[in-house]
Recover the amino acids of this structure.
């Protein structure tokens, strides 16, 4: 007997998040197919293809390097600033691209949502996975820069693993929340470029987190590291090119915020899932 899915108005009392999570593996083929489609469409008929995943952080790195070379002392210390900046831009550009694309993942697929039922969270998830693929491609260029500047890997590179996991956790929660909000509030998609631009300068991408910690009063510093990307960017850079362990307060704070965000975003998403087809 076939399983019957009933679509009805949302009700908090009817939410079963654990049951919804257990059903997701049944749609693994759809997740893989749509993720591959994201990547193919993005680079289709492009002469440079997947190289664009490296060009974006590289071009930003060049701008920041020229800026600090001309205007004054590099905040990277003895480390070449190009490597200092690029090691932070690798996780940042993956996050910014994934969040921006996933915010419109539901409204951009209205024809699919209104014709067939599947767990709607599959759509933002595909953009998260595509962003992680871009992250991997950009990391290839990072290894090339490390060879160029004679910077080798050390055991501290293992700290990149929790940084990547935190990036995935935070990006997934943010994607679910913004995708659900965009269905009813189209201002979200419009505001994303401005939000991400401001967010980047509020994240230690072009400057070290140490400088923020020494410059800000302690209460403001702890407010600053409520941004999980601060822990992601700083930990990844320290692990890959500075040969240092993480600033644990930033990493653990980011983990707490990201976990709460993902749980809350998933509940919010599922509570609005049943009427999404009426609004997209």
């Amino acid at each position: 007997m076939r399983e019957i899915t009933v679509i009805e108005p949302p009700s908090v009392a009817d939410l079963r998040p654990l049951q919804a999570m257990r059903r997701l593996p049944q749609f693994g083929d759809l997740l893989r197919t749509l993720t591959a489609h994201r990547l193919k469409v993005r680079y289709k008929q492009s002469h440079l293809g997947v190289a664009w995943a490296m060009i974006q952080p590289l071009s930003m790195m060049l701008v920041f390097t020229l800026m600090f070379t001309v205007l004054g002392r590099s905040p990277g210390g003895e480390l070449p600033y190009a490597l200092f900046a690029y090691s932070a831009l690798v996780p940042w550009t993956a996050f910014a691209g994934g969040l921006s694309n996933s915010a419109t993942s539901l409204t951009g697929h209205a024809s699919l949502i209104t014709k067939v039922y599947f767990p709607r969270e599959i759509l933002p998830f595909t953009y998260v996975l595509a962003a992680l693929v871009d992250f991997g491609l950009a990391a290839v260029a990072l290894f090339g820069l490390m060879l160029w500047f004679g910077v080798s890997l050390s055991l501290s590179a293992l700290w990149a693993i929790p940084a990547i996991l935190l990036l995935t956790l935070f990006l997934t929660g943010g994607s679910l929340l913004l995708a659900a909000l965009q269905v009813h509030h189209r201002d979200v998609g419009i505001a994303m470029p401005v939000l991400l631009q401001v967010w980047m300068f509020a994240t230690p991408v072009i400057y070290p987190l140490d400088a923020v910690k020494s410059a800000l009063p302690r209460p403001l510093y702890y407010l600053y590291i409520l941004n999980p990307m601060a822990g992601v960017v700083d930990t990844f850079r320290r692990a890959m090119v500075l040969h240092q362990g993480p600033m644990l307060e930033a990493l653990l704070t980011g983990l707490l915020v990201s976990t709460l965000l993902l749980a809350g975003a998933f509940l919010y998403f599922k509570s609005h899932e049943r009427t999404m087809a009426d609004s997209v």
User: Anything to note?
Assistant: The chain has a mean pLDDT of 81. The radius of gyration is 20 Å. The chain has one domain: 48-279. Residues 159 and 200 are 22 Å apart (CA to CA).
